[in-house]
Automatic annotation (TrEMBL):
InterPro entries, sorted: DUF6933, MM3350-like_sf, Plasmid_pRiA4b_Orf3-like
Protein name: Plasmid pRiA4b ORF-3 family protein
Domain annotation DUF6933: ranges: 2-157
A family per Pfam: PRiA4_ORF3
Residues in Plasmid pRiA4b Orf3-like domain copies: 176-352
């Protein structure tokens, strides 16, 4: 594994760079040391695909074990893409020795700097408690990048193609569950059937639900895991929730995976916006042991979700009454307000385009 370092990173490592050798671009990375939120951060960019891997919050002792951290960061980031574990290990063993050298290609340095800018720009999303920032790397790799000639591609898709060519077989495999999420509306129907990798966190499940129901992530939310009608766990989105304990054990959504409870429990209640109080009943329908994608798919759905801040079920009824009746005194105002809120008809094709990048 060839790691081509900026001078700043080489100075930090206090090592003499090896002579610039040759290595397949799939096993070559450019690396830079930057500071984000006053913490030392290493951004690695794969030379072949521009795929990004991030280490954040490195301390002096971490630099002494950087070989191990780099390998673990690449491993963790690829595994979190639901790439087959055995293929990840084959990739890592394809060039097991790490060699540090100087950067040698201005074009690749410029591309690496753009990757650094992307990670820095979203620095508030970095988790200060973890060295390996898998989510940050995967988010950076999902953005379109140009090649200077008018063509654009996404680094993650390029990396998938490179790994498929390397492995000579499909690279994705994971366990997945199909669920039906029904929004509780007295006078209207709104539900979605979705298949998701079972190892997603509840934070990621929230992102999926926001996407399929076209919510805007403007409010707090939580989950209750149900055994029949009895709640066995309350999964919350904010530390503030622990200031208001109840009889049900509480957990942070970033620390819980869907697989911690499913398929043992088959019902989940998801509440979004504690003011309008949009309650969704999630029913687990099917377990798939060999899901061949690394993203969720909306399989079916009916009905629109209400616009944000409409005022609960009663407010939604009033909103629909106004926009459907040209003679209603608030007809034009409600149509304009609904448009500003992003209210639109359910479009499964559009939802699935978004779901490819939601995790």
């Amino acid at each position: 594994m060839l790691i081509q370092c900026t001078k700043k990173l080489l100075d930090q490592l206090k090592i003499k760079p090896e002579p610039v050798g040759t290595e397949s671009s799939l096993f070559s990375w450019h690396a830079n040391l930057i500071t984000i939120n006053r913490r030392k951060t290493i951004v690695l960019m794969n030379d072949s695909s521009r795929y990004t891997v991030v280490l954040h919050g490195l301390r002096a002792n971490d630099f002494k074990h950087l070989n191990e951290h780099i390998i673990n960061a690449i491993r963790r980031t690829l595994l979190d893409e639901w790439i087959k574990p055995e293929l990840v290990e084959r990739f890592l063993s394809g060039s097991p020795e790490i060699v540090y050298t100087k950067t040698k290609d201005r074009k690749l340095v410029a591309r690496m700097n753009k990757a650094c800018d992307t990670v820095w720009f979203r620095g508030e999303a970095l988790n200060p408690d973890h060295l390996i920032q898998s989510a940050a790397g995967r988010r950076a790799s999902a953005l379109l990048v140009g090649d200077g000639s008018g063509s654009y591609a996404k680094p993650n898709e390029l990396m998938y193609k490179e790994l498929e060519a390397f492995a000579k077989e499909p690279i994705f495999s994971c366990r997945a569950v199909t669920f039906k999420a029904t929004l509780d509306l007295e006078n209207h129907k709104a539900w979605r059937r979705v298949i998701v990798p079972i190892e997603i966190t509840f934070e990621q499940l929230h992102d999926v639900l926001q996407t399929v129901f076209d919510w805007k992530e403007s409010h707090l939310h939580d989950f209750y895991i149900l055994d029949g009608k009895r709640p066995v766990a309350n999964v919350v989105c904010s530390d503030d929730a622990f200031d208001y304990p109840n009889e049900v054990p509480m957990f942070m959504e970033t620390e819980c995976k869907l697989s911690d409870y499913v398929p043992k429990y088959s019902r989940i209640k998801y509440t979004y916006d504690f003011g309008d109080n949009w309650e969704h009943e999630i029913e687990i329908e099917k377990l798939d042991e060999h899901y061949s994608k690394n993203y969720p798919v909306c399989l079916d759905g009916v009905g629109n979700a209400p616009p944000e801040d409409v005022g609960g079920p009663y407010g939604y009824d009033e909103f629909l009454s106004a926009i459907s009746d040209p003679k209603h005194p608030e007809h034009e105002d409600m149509i304009q307000w609904g448009s500003m809120q992003g209210y639109r008809d359910f479009n499964i094709e559009g939802v699935n385009r978004q779901l490819k990048w939601v995790l």
